[in-house]
Automatic annotation (TrEMBL), chains A, B:
One Gene Ontology term from the biological process aspect of the record: thiamine biosynthetic process
Enzyme class: transferase
Boundaries of every PurM-like N-terminal domain copy: 28-135
Binding locations of Mg(2+) 2: 42
Binding site for ATP: 101, 118-119, 143, 221
Residue numbers binding Mg(2+) 4: 29
This protein's name: Thiamine-monophosphate kinase
Domain PurM-like C-terminal, chain residue ranges per copy: 198-309
Family: Belongs to the thiamine-monophosphate kinase family.
Positions with a binding annotation for Mg(2+) 3: 29, 219
The organism of origin for this protein: Mucinivorans hirudinis
Pathway annotation from the record: Cofactor biosynthesis; thiamine diphosphate biosynthesis; thiamine diphosphate from thiamine phosphate: step 1/1
Note: Reaction mechanism of ThiL seems to utilize a direct, inline transfer of the gamma-phosphate of ATP to TMP rather than a phosphorylated enzyme intermediate.
NCBIfam families given in the database record: thiL
């Protein structure tokens, strides 16, 4: 009988490495097409990346473009063109498809991205949205350039998208049981971060304006811990993140208490925050401190010191992410 | 209640036009990224574009790359880079994924394409393969440049992939009923054309070598009739195709007789032939006649003469394709 190794046994990161190793693909959010142009493909699948029960189609279209743009921004480049391929099931109506495209259109306008092509197919099962985004930048930044003493910076705040999903999942269960309309009041920010997240395009613009070229950059879509570990692996460095420096929105704390979830875990492992983690040389300290939407959360250390979070009492917790645990 | 228009009511071509019209996308096989660079995205969905019951995964990987390359060749450009995103269901084993990638790898080597990125996701339903291919060419050719008296040329031969699928479908039904192994002998060519089609990369190379720049070009993936009608629409021209000039492989005739299918219908509307239809000015008659893998099947006429096939007795049959019938 033929050997059948389940993908879960191998762990997703190892699995992708095994598949792509013959092709020598660099581990970055986008591929470098030429000196100043990058390209990234992404795919959103119904039932895995989104749930149509609580995801308005306009928001989904918007989010698909945000996810695509995020991959380009994470290379310190500006998204310029996009192709969008859709797999639509027969039960999809023209009006629903239009709603999806309305969200796409809105995001394209907002980010200044031009739709240049794509493909629409029938899907026998769920909705599939595949994007390829192309961007340009004078200073493309990879994951691999972080140096000891560099500052660790992040854009925006973390954990809100994850908590938004917890809220939607809870309300979905409640509605399923009772038929009562969902109670989502007081958590508008969390819902917006989950359903219509924006990519930090202004930060990449500001970095260029201020003449700050990060040494390494990665997007935070699987949580801060996973992004930090990937960056450390690519750059062969360690990191110290200071717990009290991680920006977490007040609604995250509020809902976390209600649901008895640790808000720091939401920030570290929650995912779906389309924010950026990047490193800059110490000499840019001043420009970074005054830059809107950016926080310094720690610094880069030598590889043998590992990646850890420092709590206010000075103790260190080694960073772990579900993805990386699987690899062992 | 909200209006729900089924996509089928509108017809696929109209539907895509309706969705994408606000974005002003040109109807070509690929989008023009800059003067000499084109980009095309494609998606293959399980149950729609392939059936894993009779599609070996190595062949499927190969075919996905062929389909991607075909879009680039149809712009008179050479495919150079590709991104491949996979949606894999949990029941997929690592070995199966490796088989898929082995086929991808083989095609990439053969076509000289570099894999530069992609994305692997879990899929709740079927296998999804999304590709984006980038190509370069000194003389990008669109669908819209055909002129009256131009020669109509095609690469390869038509109908074989469609007949290969008919054969596989027949054997699938037979195996389902009786459990007997499929009888596929004598039809190796048809099976290869369906399962492992190649894209006519050598023709695009030869055109460049001979200094022949087509006036219009399109790939033949939905059958010759559909391709011809699209080209006529984009170029605002008519066409005369001579029935006896359409190259059809002998195995197509053989199986068509067995299954009582009209082989000309297979060639005109069958689809899945990754061949090219293109037009060249009359003065290139000589270069085209001596070019391997190319046949002249007719010529371009004025738009008011319409697109028709001329039978050996001189009567004309108006070209129709299922896609275009839907539009009325």
């Amino acid at each position: 009988m033929q050997t059948r190794t389940q993908i879960a046994e191998l762990g997703k990161v190892n699995f992708i490495e095994k598949l792509t190793s013959p092709f020598a693909i660099e581990a970055d959010d986008a591929a470098i097409l030429d000196n100043n142009r990058v390209i990234a493909s992404d795919m959103l699948l119904e039932g895995v990346d989104f749930d149509l029960q609580y995801t308005p189609l306009e928001h989904l279209g918007y989010k698909a473009v945000t996810a695509a743009a995020s991959n380009i921004l994470a290379m310190n480049a500006m998204p310029k063109e996009i192709t969008i391929s859709l797999g639509l099931s027969a039960r999809f109506s023209v009006e629903e498809s239009e709603a999806l495209y309305k969200g796409v259109h809105y995001a394209l306008d907002q980010y200044g991205i031009r739709l240049i092509g794509g493909n629409t197919s029938a899907s026998m099962s769920g909705l599939v949205i595949a994007t390829t985004c192309i961007g340009t930048g004078d200073n493309i930044v990879r994951r691999s350039g972080a140096k000891t003493t560099d500052l660790l910076c992040i854009t925006g705040n973390l954990g809100a998208a994850y908590m938004g999903m917890q809220l939607l999942e809870r309300e979905k269960r409640a509605v399923g049981k009772s038929g009562i309309m969902p109670q989502l009041e007081g958590y508008n920010y969390l819902l917006r971060r989950q359903l219509q997240p924006t990519a930090p395009i202004s930060v990449v613009k500001n970095l260029a304006t201020e003449g700050v070229v990060p040494t390494a950059m990665i997007d935070i879509t699987n949580g801060l811990a996973s992004a930090m570990l990937s960056l450390c692996q690519s750059s062969q460095c360690g990191a110290r993140i200071y717990l009290e420096r991680i920006p977490i929105a007040s609604e995250v704390f509020k809902l976390a208490q209600e649901l008895q979830i640790d808000p720091v875990v939401a920030a570290l492992n929650g995912g779906d925050d389309f924010e950026l983690l990047f490193t800059v040389p110490l000499e840019h300290h001043k420009e970074i401190l005054t830059m809107a939407g950016v926080d310094v959360i720690g610094h880069v250390v030598a590889v043998d010191e590992g990646a850890a979070m420092v709590t206010p009492d000075g103790s260190e917790i080694r960073l772990q992410s579900p993805d990386f645990v699987n690899q062992m």
